[in-house]
Write a structure and sequence with these properties.
The chain has a domain of 59 residues: Homeodomain-like (Arc Repressor Mutant, subunit A, Orthogonal Bundle), CATH 1.10.10.60. Helices cover 66% and strands 3% of the residues. The chain is built from four helices and two strands. The longest helix has 51 residues. This is NKX61 protein. It is found in: Nucleus.
Amino acid sequence: ILLDKDGKRKHTRPTFSGQQIFALEKTFEQTKYLAGPERARLAYSLGMTESQVKVWFQNRRTKWRKKHAAEMATAKKKQDSETERLKGASENEEEDDDYNKPLDPNSDDEKITQLLKKHKPGGGGLLLHTP
């Protein structure tokens, strides 16, 4: 038993063996919450107190939630960037639709020139014949 400077009992942090941690982690994979009897059986089989098992599970759930939240945030960012990429691609397709439409012989030559410059570097070297 450790005492602090005032002579009061000082709480020490328990250290768990590798075997105990392994068993706790395996149990946590199966269930995130333990009912009283399950906690008592696990504590007894590992040579721990029920309180230690309870606190370990509380701490482990907190760690699990943080990791899960971080993974969800990363997945959302990835999904958002993919959505933006696809949105940009669809905007380009809409612009390409203008290029692929048949030209109206009575349309503005300036519009035709802009479309050609946009889709062919240097205007494509085409000459426009105006009636």
